[in-house]
Input
Amino acid sequence: MLTLVFVVGLAGVAVAYVLSRQVLKADTGTAEMQSVALAIKQGAGAYLKRQNTTIAIIIGILALVIYVLYGARGEMAIGLKTVGAFVAGAVLSALSGYFGMAIAVRANLRTAAGAKVGVNRALQLALRGGAVAGFLVVSLSLLGVAGLFYLFGGLQNPTAVPMQLVGFGFGASLVALFAQLGGGIYTKAADVGADLVGKVEAGIPEDDLRNPAVVADLVGDNVGDCAGRGADLFESSVAESLGAMIIGIAMYEVFGLGGIIFALVAHALGLVASMIGVFTVKVKGDEDPMKSLNRGFLVTAALAFVGFAAAARLLLYTDTAPKAWLLFAACGLLGLLTSLAFLFITQYYTSHRYRPVKSIVEASRTGAATNIITGFAVALENTFAPVVVVGIALLTSHWLGGLTGLDGGGLFGTALATMGMLSTVGYVLAMDTFGPITDNAGGIVEMSNASEDVRNTTDKLDAVGNTTKALTKGYAVGSAALAAFLLFSAYLEAAGLESIDLAKPVVFVGALMGGMLVFLFASLAIRAVGKGAYYIINDVRDQFKENPGIMAGTSKPNYARCVDIATKGALKQMVLPGIVAVAVPTLVGVLLGPEAVGGTLMVGTIAGVLLALVLNNGGGAWDNAKKYVETGVYGGKGSDVHKATVVGDTVGDPFKDTAGPSLHVLIKLLSTLTLVLLPLFTLFR
Amino acid sequence: MLTLVFVVGLAGVAVAYVLSRQVLKADTGTAEMQSVALAIKQGAGAYLKRQNTTIAIIIGILALVIYVLYGARGEMAIGLKTVGAFVAGAVLSALSGYFGMAIAVRANLRTAAGAKVGVNRALQLALRGGAVAGFLVVSLSLLGVAGLFYLFGGLQNPTAVPMQLVGFGFGASLVALFAQLGGGIYTKAADVGADLVGKVEAGIPEDDLRNPAVVADLVGDNVGDCAGRGADLFESSVAESLGAMIIGIAMYEVFGLGGIIFALVAHALGLVASMIGVFTVKVKGDEDPMKSLNRGFLVTAALAFVGFAAAARLLLYTDTAPKAWLLFAACGLLGLLTSLAFLFITQYYTSHRYRPVKSIVEASRTGAATNIITGFAVALENTFAPVVVVGIALLTSHWLGGLTGLDGGGLFGTALATMGMLSTVGYVLAMDTFGPITDNAGGIVEMSNASEDVRNTTDKLDAVGNTTKALTKGYAVGSAALAAFLLFSAYLEAAGLESIDLAKPVVFVGALMGGMLVFLFASLAIRAVGKGAYYIINDVRDQFKENPGIMAGTSKPNYARCVDIATKGALKQMVLPGIVAVAVPTLVGVLLGPEAVGGTLMVGTIAGVLLALVLNNGGGAWDNAKKYVETGVYGGKGSDVHKATVVGDTVGDPFKDTAGPSLHVLIKLLSTLTLVLLPLFTLFR
Output
């Protein structure tokens, strides 16, 4: 069965390679398009190079710290394994981000050129470009976890090895944190900076070639949504596998190795389902492209469930409880339904067809203040349904698992629900990366003076891309909540704790700190965007002053300089929130001990899920309220209502693209960090 | 010692009576002033009458439910006591709000008239008017708790009676919830409604007599800040006394009755200190009136500590641990210092002299969106310091208490820190009610065409009142956090639970629900303001249409009709959030059991404290950013920067005056509700 995992993992890489060849072979459009795309490609490459250098230094230092830590306890061998896994997790996460983005910044041009042929062609190119990222992320996470499991002797000693892999998860979390933070800061700093200095100060339209920040803005979509979210979901996938494997250890006497590697097998089959799903997507005639993508998702989900049930029958069958596998398969189905529920709820709160966005538009008639108040009320309200859904999913899967009558069956049931939810991750990531590709394609078409027809096609796809981006965020936060819950159990196990007792003062204070960390981190992430934007505004002002030919249209602005400044700014600004994210749980652990940090972990997760929902969907709702007015209602573009919605949209930008997504990563980082640094927390006790 | 409590309690009522006579004897100004003040008085009275009728119905229904509940368990006697305590808590809370406001709506006119004499005269009248509310709140809470303790046979059976008093706390919480919610909705709905339809639509200035909503706006200050916050702090004071008494039971073998009634004695001495403090306040020459108020606070705090230490020596001296009383007195000092720290932090985050507000003003230069983004970042950031302070206070007092070597000394130490913090509550409430009185005085002066000089005086006091209102909110949230922590222990005790283990799925889900409840409740409270404002806007539009003479200035608008409509609207809108606040913990308790609801309680408290800090101080910072620009910086009133800050101020209004303060009450309601409904949660188990 482990062989199957390796085969599918390698097959995923192979399919990603084939897809990328297909995409690269496609028409690359006009020379004008190519020059814009080249600038984006170079900018994104330069950003990623710098980011990875910075991250490499941080990873190096932490690797040393971890090694010394384990060494101080005389656990050299485990220390070496943990450090090895840590570095491997970091490298694979960075690699999957790198390759995924390398294709995305090439697929954008092909999508723009493909838009001349028609919607179906452009959509297929964008989705397949996105699928390269999606498949690579899942494949590399499978190969990484399965490979280390094999290397560390998991076949001989399956109950001890999974805990030695937590370093892999920590490495992946850390890279994800910086990738999502840095990318999120970059993308919104460039967006806000370009808008403020271009539209507001210089009075030139959006995506105008004379604006030196316009390329930085397009680069931002790739480094934020593509590389950032890729690292986020790589991490979710790893964290979930590790958590499920550790929980599977408790079932070793019943299911043997099968219970431990079930997560990997389920992921592998889910990847196969995602591949088939992506290849079935086709826009039929004039239909809404979103419909085609939804069809592909349903195909993926159905196939993933079939694979899941088959794997349950094979690996989780036992004579002592012959119906257990059926109950566990039902847990998987529950997870899939949970992901569907999350997609629906996200759509309800962020689409203009439903009450929430409509109420924001309505409130905008009395100005920007009421737009913000109503949007904030909507954002706070939208925590209700997802929390109830997660609560029901956790308790029902725990109950179903308990019905098997097996010891530890309840917890194993919750692990299976999480696996069910994450079994479609390959397809979801393809849809997500689809977003920046179509967004970029739209930008390229706009900047290369293509025909009206082509613009309409890319505009249509761009709108779909916005929806898929919002949906992925809903999916990411739901899966983060469930994956984190699995790692709680791992933490309790590792720390030898029976409970996390909130009634103890140290635990309560640890819990308070966890909640506060989430709020403080979000504050720093939001503020970082503002600071990052200032660097860009200043550079654009300088360029206009130094070279008056830019505004006259007689000479080209220096896009690369703006990209470079945005890069440096974002990387500088990501340091403080990154340090806070690592420092707060570490300090709580060192000062107050392992049980207190358990409180930090759990309440941090709860607060993180809630605030991420507020920021993501609040931002999405404000965005779509503006877009809805731009379709012509209440006076359309330029009206007072529109101006009010623009304020809301600008406020929502750093919420939904920087702070919110970074919180998903923070949630999982808390789990993996506390697991890896546990020796430190017990050192002085 | 219990006699002392009764004596001080009655003395507090007597002093309140004397103060109110003093205030009522003062000059009542011109006929114009009197007519405005009369309208406010009638409006506030009508509101409170309707509100109390609504609350009485709810209380009646719940009293029946509680009685049936205990009856079903065959605990008729305890059921009757609980219901009696519940009704008494509700009635005393309503009474203290009623009398406090009755004086406030009379002191406003006297303060306006006193402004002709000078700042000192006006400040003293406003503060003494406020002190009536403050002293009554503390006195009635003392008389209520001590009286019931005596009536229920506390002297004979001191270890059993305190738990029978929790109904008193629940009654107080419930009235506080509706008073704060209804009052908060009323005040901001009237404010926003009056502004939108007056300033924006009709183009008339603020506080213009032609605006039919202008009286409703002034009424709102009384029902929100005066009656609402009064009920909030009545409840804090009760919750803290009850929690401390229950914790004191564990020390019964060491300290006897003294340990149980210590909280009441400390409160009584604190009330004496507050009285002396209020009487020392005097504005010396040209000094900033805030300085005089601060001086009074320091006098109060110093005297309260002396009383606290003396009480500790008398009641907490034991030969087995002769230094214990010193350590416990140190815990009280810690609590006092915590309240000082909270006042300082609140000031740092909401005063224009420091970085946070300055950064908002700076960001407003690029428009409303950046004003909101920066303000929100400031609001999120401001959770850091208070949480660290509360954490340090809890752990240090627990440690100090533990140093006594007495069993349960740690927890008792945290109780004493809370008592220390709340020992100045009388003075703080006087400062708080000072706010609406001076605000009203300003409105009366404005609307009665008084001279420039008088206006300057009331403007100065109004600014001070805004500061004191913000400070009280900081104090209220800090004391709510500590008081809630005390009640956790009571809950564990009552439910017979050893721990609240977050690692259990039901407890984790209960905790998730607690966090979500806070966000959902805040959303509903914020939205209620918007809905309430619509009623007012519609009525004002109707009045302008029906009677064109209003705008021409030839006939008077119908203020009473607007007040009546605002009243009905606010009371209607407070029902839904009120039901949600009661329903969520009840459902969790019934469906998932007592330990899960413990998770709801604790994580709800953490999330509530964090979100209340965000909403209160975020709102305060936006408010003062606007006020700072109005002093003339960046172009002053009417400039683009000013417009951007007006948006932030409007957004912050329902945050800081409706949702934030209501969350304080929700936190404590969670504690008392779970304690009282505990029999329901265990019914089916």
Remarks:
- Chain A touches chain B through 74 residues (CB under 8 Å).
- The mean pLDDT of chain A is 89.
- The longest helix of chain A spans residues 452-495.
